[in-house]
Amino acid sequence: MNENKKTYELVQNFSNVKDKRLKLIIIGSLMDSIKNDVISLIQKDERIHYLGWRDSKELLKYIAASDLYIQPGSQSATMQNALCSGTPVLIANVKSYQVYMQGNAFAINNTNEIESVINLILKDPDILKNMSEKAFDLSSRILDYEKLAERILE
Length: 154
Fold this sequence. Notes:
- The structure is a single chain.
- By secondary structure, this protein is α/β, with parallel strands linked by helices.
- It contains 7 helices and 5 strands; from the N terminus they run H-E-H-E-H-E-H-E-E-H-H-H.
- The chain has a 3-stranded parallel β-sheet with strand order 3-4-5, with helices on both faces. A two-stranded parallel sheet has the order 1-2.
- 22% of the residues are buried.
């Protein structure tokens, strides 16, 4: 993860919400350019766990077990895996993600909005259940490989 993934900003905003029920798990390799700063923030908050690199099978297990997948910075296909797992997402509000935002996503314009989204979820945790159902529905409609192949072959 580099600066474009906004990992530092994610950790910073998460840490601002002081609720013991929350946990943040960060998976992936941190680039040297941000590693020390991000690790320093993580060490200040016992609710945050940095697991480093994990293979795709293990990553998918964590995503499927999560209440929310957060990707406030640059795009990756992992967000699509989250939707296929029925996991709601918090993502950057970018044009290429619009197709994936159908009641299953929190779209943010800047990382300062992360804290507000977390507080919203704390006030109404059931919102994630509804978003999870919509994530799974969306993924079965537009991310299913058979349906993708049908669209290509049309």
